[in-house]
Amino acid sequence: MPHLAQRCNAVLPFYAVELFKQANALNAQGHDVISLGIGEPDFTAPGPVVDTLNRASVAGLSGYTPPLGLSALREAIAQYYGAAFEAPVDASRVVITAGASGALMLAAMALINPGDEVLLPDPSYPANQNFIVSAGGIPRLIPSTPEQRFQLSAEDVRRHWGPATRGVLIASPSNPTGTRIAPDELKALVAEVRSHGGFIIMDEIYLGLYYGDRPQSALVLDDDIIIINSFSKYFHMTGWRLGWMIIPPDMIEAVDRLAASLTICAPSLAQHAALTCFEPDVMHIYENRRLSFQQRRDYLLPQLEQLGLHVPVTPDGAFYIYADISQHSPDSEDFSQRLLKQAHVAAVPGRDFGPFHAHRMLRFSYTLGLDRLEEAVDRMRKFLG
């Protein structure tokens, strides 16, 4: 057997995926499992997007594209960011990637040297740490609190920035909490990182799924922030593996070279189909679906509170609720397993998102219709007695 690289020991498991496997196994045994675990919308790509994919396939448009992506798609995303999030950008700065994961990989490879430290909030999306580790960097989780909306703060950066720190990786709205960073706090955080000469990678995958004031992109505050986004969540194209990043001009040449070798290009048929996402009639479909997610959130929040599953911060984006189960159990992992096996409801234990809140928190994903959410609540009510 060959000796595995040491980084393999540092790569964290993804417990949400393991829970997904357990739920699938129970389904295969004939049990009806309601999964509030995996963050995958029940909606799929709208018909016009699928039709465009089929036409592109018939037309033979499945060959390689340039490493940075189709020019027309880069231009469409640049216009979308200007119209939707008040952050017009030049299309040359848009890089089409193999999902947001591909964007995070390119960002990590372009910015992180071995031994570099990157600050992240605890809780945060677990795979983010693995991208840092894969580039030879050191992820450092900083405990956050409900008072901070479970987000990294400027004060956190000030207190924890050390000789090896090179930047921060943040998300707004966040997975697992669904919370956005308050504009004033984000402005202060950006200023603090810049005072140290550091980089900011901002995950805006859930920016289109907002419940409140229309959001702005972080690019409004600082044009040199590295933006990560995707067609998976708001555009409901998870398995199409298509995302993008927006980068400063001085990174374009380096990212182009990296992308040419590491991925050659993002899936070409998916790129052609994605152009249809930005047509007005299709955007109207997405807007109606966003309102459906808001309706689900507004149903599930009070129901969880009535069950004694306290939600410390109301989520104002994404499709996640981060709930405190300590009234019922001191161990969220045990609670999650019992909930799955006895009530056939899947929810992700807190250890997936960092150790600080691990034992008392569960993440619920409201990516199912109201009828299934109502059934899940009924099952949980019986489970809790």
Question: How would you describe what is shown here?
Answer:
The protein starts with 6 loop residues before the first helix and ends with a helix. With 385 residues, it is of the alpha/beta class. The model has no long low-confidence stretch (mean pLDDT 96). The chain folds into two domains: 7-44 and 282-384, Aspartate Aminotransferase, domain 1, CATH 3.90.1150.10; 47-280, Type I PLP-dependent aspartate aminotransferase-like (Major domain) (Aspartate Aminotransferase, domain 2). 41% of the residues lie in helices and 14% in strands. The chain is globular, with a radius of gyration of 21 Å. The strands form three sheets. The chain has a seven-stranded mixed β-sheet with strand order 2-8-7-6-5-3-4, with helices on both faces. β5 (165-171), α8 and β6 form a beta-alpha-beta unit.
In percent terms, what proportion of residues is strand? Answer: 5-15%
CATH architecture of the largest domain: 3-Layer(aba) Sandwich
Taking all Cα atoms into account, the compactness measure Rg is 21 Å
- Strand arrangement within the widest β-sheet reads 2-8-7-6-5-3-4
Overall residue-averaged pLDDT value:
96
Uncertain runs: none
SSE topology string: HHEHHEHEHEHEHEEEHHHEHEEEH
Structural class: alpha/beta
Q: What is the terminal-to-terminal distance?
A: 51 Å
Indicate how many domains the architecture comprises.
2
CATH class of the largest domain: Alpha Beta
CATH topology of the largest domain: Aspartate Aminotransferase, domain 2
Helix content: 40-55%
Largest sheet: 7 strands, mixed
